[in-house]
Amino acid sequence: MGHDINSFEELRTLFGEPSELAKRKVISLVDEHCSNYISHSPFLVLSTSDENGYTDSSPRGDAAGFVLVLDHNRIVIPERPGNKRMDSLKNILSNGRVGLLFLIPGMLETLRVNGKARLTRDPELLGRMKAGGKVPLLGIVVEVEECYIQCGKALKRSGLWNPETWGDSSTLPKGAEILAAHSKMPKGSEDEIRKRLEDGYKNRLY
């Protein structure tokens, strides 16, 4: 492909040098500002990869402050019930490198955290993350190596928090329809999968 970019030097020529602010914004700990952001965030995206470099990004969400800040170097993400594929957890066992993207609804700036993760069943830690009357089965402890705020241009361009940009719900993709098409289960009709999803959202969040 004649138009592919194949070196960092080509990228630097194309985009130029970062500002002094961009160079200096990365810190190696969770300071009071980052801790405050995390305490207000109800949602994050967890990025992992396995030993061969195959990647995965997974959403994690709960009431604001669901991620526990232990100290300046460690945070813990509770593992709530999911589909039991455990893609992120398997990846962490083979390659602990993770990237996190925290969001706060209505706020343009996001918080990025990079580090190394491990899985814990420490009862004291898990007990501090109890929700819906249940203690999580395990927690993801992240040893923070990089922590920094990301400007809000992407969210501004997308109109993510602007209801006027949201599509008509009747025209949006339907999760049950997509699952039915992809899974091709003998008894996996769209209606059956929709009911299953609705039951999970109502009765199996914790």
Topology diagram in text:
Blueprint: H1 8-15, H2 20-24, H3 32-40, E1 43-49, E2 55-61, E3 68-69, E4 74-78, H4 87-94, E5 97-103, E6 110-120, H5 123-127, E7 139-150, H6 153-158, H7 175-183, H8 190-203
Antiparallel strand pairs: 1-2, 1-5, 3-4, 4-7, 5-6, 6-7
Brief rundown of the structure:
With about 210 residues, this protein is α+β, with helices and mostly antiparallel strands.
The coarse silhouette is globular
Oligomer description: single chain
N-to-C series of helices and strands? HHHEEEEHEEHEHHH
Count, helices: 8
Strand content: 15-25%
Ranges where pLDDT stays below 50 over 5 or more residues in a row are: none
**Average pLDDT rating:** 95
Helix content percent band: 25-40%
Strand order of the largest sheet: 2-1-5-6-7-4-3
Helix and strand content put the structural class at: alpha+beta
Instruction: Tell me the major beta sheet.
Output: 7 strands, antiparallel
Count of beta strands: 7
As a whole number of angstroms, the C-alpha radius of gyration is 20 Å
**How far apart lie the N and C ends?**
49 Å
Structural commentary:
It is a single chain. With 206 residues, the protein is an alpha+beta fold. Helix content is 31%, strand content 25%. The protein has eight helices and seven strands; from the N terminus they run H-H-H-E-E-E-E-H-E-E-H-E-H-H-H. The protein has helices at 8-15, 20-24, 32-40, 87-94, 123-127, 153-158, 175-183, 190-203; strands at residues 43-49, 55-61, 68-69, 74-78, 97-103, 110-120, 139-150. The chain has a seven-stranded antiparallel β-sheet, with helices on one face. A hairpin with a 4-residue loop joins strand 3 (68-69) and strand 4. It starts with 7 loop residues before the first helix and ends with a helix. The mean pLDDT is 95.
